[in-house]
Design brief:
Distance between the termini: 36 Å
Low-confidence stretches: 414-422
Mean pLDDT: 93
Largest sheet: 9 strands, mixed
Shape: globular
Helix content: 40-55%
Number of strands: 11
Number of domains: 1
Order of helices and strands: HEHEHEHHHEHHHHHHEHHEEHEEEHE
């Protein structure tokens, strides 16, 4: 069976230097989802950047949504649209990503895309400017800060509800886990306050000034507050359900961005493979776990999405030993024997693209383990974890393979953070 798969890969693979192969498949899709098998691989950022530029120029895509914090991404959004009066270049604006793991977006590779977006938007009328948004929910306190700042500035009556919500969360010292323990075991939660704030903001969102997307910014920060409260309260007792809350949130943010941009909106999503690759084609489904790729396919129809997975056989990667630790440059060993990445290597140690279509979908729909590296990683445990059983042709519409990859180049943000070579 392995030999047949290797032969099939050889037959259906295209050289990676021809990204037009992918662009030709994208015509009427509402979303293009660009994955990554790690958050710390340089090539993934560079290839997604080139694809993103062409999707905007050649296919009319209108916004980029990333697995990042909304407030920090808003700084980028303000910069690329010419509304930023604080930062003079992309390197400066990327300092906004100062919450761990900083390297996901505060890296050298992102500078090219951000400066390109600013230049592109400089040639467009306001209504055709491309946006850059974060769709994750970890920015609970930062989002409350942004709401209070705006509501104070505009002397809005909703300021009282925002202050009440902030006061409820304040004793937990901006620690989501601490709040989760208190809410779960001592019934000291802020659920009512967060929901009431979201209701008030949502009911009056059209009354807020539209200058520099202030209404959208306020609405999403209120949504983050409510959904993050639910996430942290749930994660203490049910990891799978907290994952589902997070991915439902990301789709909800995408939907609200779509409404904001209007009927012609089209979005490019940058996230880990575990979020964009349809969970129904993995063992995640057996545990009741859903993800963004699955939810969007169910919501929009498969023909309205194009999902591209990314992977590598070996190389270096940026990650950390434990959550919150300083990042390191780690060596990622050759992929596990029999894995998807191993078969791609055996089919020829060259970078390549595979399109999954009617001609080969049946060949590539058998279950095979597929590598996934998170922000926390141990190369020593590579053979025992970091692989997700997947039916590749059902999980993705295409796959980009890098034979030997290199670590992303983080900007140094925060005290005591640096690169340690192993």
């Amino acid at each position: 069976m392995e030999e047949k798969l290797v032969q099939a890969i050889q037959m259906h693979a295209h050289p990676l230097n021809d990204l037009g192969i992918l662009l030709n498949e994208i015509n009427n899709q509402k979303y293009v989802l660009l994955g990554e098998s790690s958050h710390g691989t340089s090539e993934f950022y560079k290839i997604r950047t080139e694809l993103t530029k062409r999707l905007i120029e050649e296919k009319g895509f209108t916004f980029i949504a990333v697995e990042g914090d909304w407030p920090a991404c808003q700084q980028v959004n303000q910069y690329i649209k010419g509304w930023d009066r604080t930062h003079s270049n992309a390197r400066e604006v990327l300092q906004s990503f100062n919450r761990w793991p900083t390297w996901m977006w505060a890296n050298e590779e992102m500078i090219d895309l951000i400066e390109w977006l600013k230049a592109y938007n400089g040639t467009q009328p306001r209504e055709k400017m491309v946006g850059f948004y974060g769709i994750d929910l970890y920015s609970l306190w930062e989002s409350m800060d942004e709401m209070i700042k705006f509501l104070q500035k505009t002397n809005s009556p909703e300021l009282e509800a925002a202050r009440k919500t902030f006061a409820c969360f304040e004793p937990f010292n901006r620690q989501g886990e601490k709040y989760g323990v208190s809410a779960t075991f001592y019934s000291e939660d802020c659920y009512e306050e967060a929901i009431q704030l979201l209701k008030e903001i949502s009911l009056k969102k059209y009354t807020f000034p539209d200058h520099e997307e202030s209404g959208l910014n306020l609405e999403i920060n209120a949504l983050i507050t409510a959904n993050a409260e639910n996430y942290y309260r749930t994660m203490i007792v049910n990891d799978n359900e907290s994952w589902n809350i997070r991915d439902h949130h990301m789709v909800e943010v995408l939907n609200r961005i779509m409404v904001f941009f209007g009927n012609q909106a089209k979005g490019i999503v940058w996230e880990h493979n575990t979020h964009v690759g349809d969970a129904r084609a993995t063992d995640m489904a057996n545990e009741g776990i859903i993800n963004v790729g699955q939810l969007l396919r169910e919501q929009e129809g498969e023909e309205r999405l194009f999902i591209i997975g990314f992977g590598t056989h070996r190389g270096s990667v940026i990650a950390a030993d434990r959550w919150g630790d300083n990042f390191k440059k780690m060596m990622s060993p050759p992929a596990k024997v029999g894995s998807w990445e191993d078969l791609m290597y055996k089919a020829g140690p060259k970078d390549k693209i595979i399109l999954f279509n009617d001609e080969n979908r049946q060949i590539f729909n058998q279950t095979i383990v597929h590598r996934a590296i998170g922000v926390v990683y141990s190369p020593l445990h590579e053979q025992y974890g970091n692989y997700v059983p997947s039916r590749m042709s059902e999980r993705y519409d295409a796959f980009v393979y890098i034979n030997s990859s290199n670590a992303v180049n983080p900007l140094e943000i925060g005290r005591g953070i640096g690169i340690i070579s192993l």
